[in-house]
């Protein structure tokens, strides 16, 4: 029903307006008595064989929602009713910011992809904290970034502010230095500034009674040499793992009219490259750390591909938009038939 009717209607309208409309509709729908239970029954696959323990956390199932969808932690409870094993919120910055000028979100229907140049639009970390205080049982990842007007030289302070504010309200952290939509942000992926940033956060982390896992989200556009640097940085800083990958600036092989829009590309065209990055990191590091695989997962087979390449968990974003919430259930059902359950 989603692909044959709902998606056809939604895709007739501006994608950013549809995003906010969907948020509002899901919130209102879940306020109707009994609807949450109905959604869980329809989409949630509950089976102990799906449970995963990764970087010290217990996940109900290995299929999560990637950052960028619920930027302000406004819908994490409602989204968890659709079957996700975990929800990553953000990217959040210390201060509220409007993001880049509209229009900034584009569908590439022929490629089953999206280009976005949102630019970390969010209401700031303090507003996110207010919402996360109401969380009861949703496993939450907090994806943190820097404000657009903060220079790279001062960026560490922005990440520290977000880390301190969110510490008590998220289960793990993700350091986002790989979005292509904040000027010069990707320069923080270079070995020296990235090591400094991660060591600073780890120092804050180690001073806490119960340190939280810190992960690094990387771009798919890194070279093999840069990926080898990432492996060394993970080893040196002792962070918990990697999320591979963020959106790409590549436009290779695209067919759609909007293919030359500026921004980060996500969706089916990213599948192969993100899997390559996962496999490279897993093999070259001798599986030394967990990897969350994200990028181009539009089917259960795509998810299995990521896991077989070396990912411990997977995340959806664009595939969730194109395929609908039924995709989460399909992946978990397929996992129960695979070599990944005992």
UniProtKB/TrEMBL annotation:
InterPro entries: Aldolase_TIM (IPR013785), DHO_dehydrogenase (IPR050074), Dihydroorotate_DH_1_2 (IPR012135), Dihydroorotate_DH_2 (IPR005719), Dihydroorotate_DH_cat (IPR005720), Dihydroorotate_DH_CS (IPR001295). The gene is pyrD. It comes from Autumnicola tepida. The keyword Oxidoreductase applies. Pathway: Pyrimidine metabolism; UMP biosynthesis via de novo pathway; orotate from (S)-dihydroorotate (quinone route): step 1/1. PANTHER family: DIHYDROOROTATE DEHYDROGENASE (QUINONE), MITOCHONDRIAL, DIHYDROOROTATE DEHYDROGENASE (QUINONE), MITOCHONDRIAL-RELATED. GO terms for molecular function: dihydroorotate dehydrogenase (quinone) activity. Its EC number is 1.3.5.2. The active site is at 179 (nucleophile). Keywords: Cell membrane, Flavoprotein, FMN, Membrane, Oxidoreductase, Pyrimidine biosynthesis. Residues 50-337 form the Dihydroorotate dehydrogenase catalytic domain. PROSITE patterns: DHODEHASE_2. Its cofactor is FMN. This is Dihydroorotate dehydrogenase (quinone). It is a peripheral membrane protein. NCBIfam families: PRK05286.1-2, PRK05286.2-5, pyrD_sub2.
């Amino acid at each position: 029903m989603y692909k044959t009717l709902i998606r056809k209607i939604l895709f007739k309208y501006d994608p950013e307006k549809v995003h906010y409309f969907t948020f509002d509709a899901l919130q209102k729908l879940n306020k109707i008595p009994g609807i949450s239970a109905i959604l869980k029954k329809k989409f949630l696959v509950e089976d102990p064989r799906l449970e995963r323990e990764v970087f010290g956390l217990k996940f109900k199932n290995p299929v999560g929602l990637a950052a960028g969808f619920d930027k302000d932690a406004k819908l994490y409870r409602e989204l968890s009713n659709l079957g996700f094993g975990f929800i990553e919120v953000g990217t959040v910055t210390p201060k509220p910011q409007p993001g880049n000028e509209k229009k900034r979100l584009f569908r590439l229907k022929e490629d089953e992809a999206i280009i976005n140049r949102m630019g970390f639009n969010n209401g700031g970390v303090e507003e996110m904290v207010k919402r996360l205080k109401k969380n009861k049982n949703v496993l939450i990842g907090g994806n943190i970034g820097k404000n657009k007007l903060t220079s790279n030289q001062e960026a560490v302070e922005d990440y520290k502010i977000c880390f301190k504010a969110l510490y008590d309200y998220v289960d793990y952290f993700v350091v986002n230095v790989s979005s292509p939509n904040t000027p010069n942000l990707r320069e923080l992926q270079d070995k020296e500034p990235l090591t400094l940033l991660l060591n600073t956060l780890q120092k804050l982390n180690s001073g806490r009674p119960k340190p939280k896992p810190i992960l690094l989200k990387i771009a798919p556009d890194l070279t093999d040499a840069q990926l080898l640097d990432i492996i060394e940085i993970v080893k040196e800083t002792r962070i918990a793992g990697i999320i591979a990958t963020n959106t790409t600036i590549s436009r290779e092989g695209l067919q759609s009219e909007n293919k030359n829009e500026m921004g980060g590309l996500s969706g089916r065209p990213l599948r192969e490259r993100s899997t390559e990055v996962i496999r490279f990191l897993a093999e070259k590091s001798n599986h030394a750390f967990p990897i969350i695989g994200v990028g181009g997962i539009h089917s259960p087979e795509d998810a299995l591909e990521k896991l077989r390449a070396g990912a411990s968990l997977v995340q959806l974003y664009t595939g969730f938009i194109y395929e609908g919430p039924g995709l989460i259930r399909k992946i978990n059902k397929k996992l129960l038939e695979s070599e990944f359950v005992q």
